[in-house]
Amino acid sequence: MRFIFKLGQCLCVIVLLVVAGTSQSKPRLLVSPVLYQDQPIVIVGREVAGEPFKENEKIIADEDWLKQLVLEVKNVSSKNIKSFDIDLVIKDRGMPVLAFPINFRTYTKPNTSDALTTNGEAKVGVLQPGESVKVKITAHSFEVFTNELKKRNLENVERATIEFRFVYFDDGTNWAFGKQSRIPQM
Q: What is the distance between the alpha carbons of residues 180 and 40, in angstroms, rounded to a whole number?
């Protein structure tokens, strides 16, 4: 009788471990962006929770993987970049429902919402040609957009698509969705 009780306890522990393991970590996919001919930025690195992964490679990660996602973005243009906007688009049944914003902004002194240099220091100043920064979703944005996903019963995101939105240069021009233009003066 005692053996059966111990065996039952062991089976319960195993079942709990399997359920806990499968409910927390599962395959996730970060889909690469559409590339444009004159695109000023490219993603040269990606990692979740400090673990690098390759472009379009499925990774095993927890439910909050987007919060832990870091993208290394490189300026491949010949101009200084003042700011850029990237979205991580979440779709439901093939239709976009929400996009987590990832932004880079130029600051004159270190700021907690700044991007980081490849050495892990706060990035100050413009992103120069050939230079890379590490960017991620801010904690505030993650909280706000995760709450929106919960309202739609989509909180356990398994797939996100990267979309490059806007790049603003220090010469008064910008790039959006494959087109360059001049920023209107007010």
A: 10
Q: Is residue 150 classed as helix, strand or coil in its secondary structure? A: helix
Under a CB-based contact definition with an 8 Å cutoff, are residues 55 and 127 in contact?
A: no
- What does pTM read for this prediction? 0.83
Residue 14 clears pLDDT 80, i.e. is over it: no
Residue 40 and residue 84: Cα distance in Å, rounded? 10
Separation between Cα atoms, residue 72 and residue 12, nearest integer Å: 43
* Distance of alpha carbon 126 from alpha carbon 105, whole angstroms: 8
Asked if the model's pLDDT at residue 172 lies above 80, the reply is: yes
Separation of alpha carbons 164 and 150, rounded Å:
25
With 60 as the cut, is the pLDDT of residue 20 above it?
Answer: no
Query: What is the number of alpha carbons within 13 Å of residue 79 lying toward its C-beta?
Result: 18
- Cα→Cα distances 167→6, 71, 76, 180, Å: 63, 16, 12, 9
* pLDDT tens column, 67-116: 999 999 999 999 999 999 999 999 998 899 999 999 999 887 777 666 88
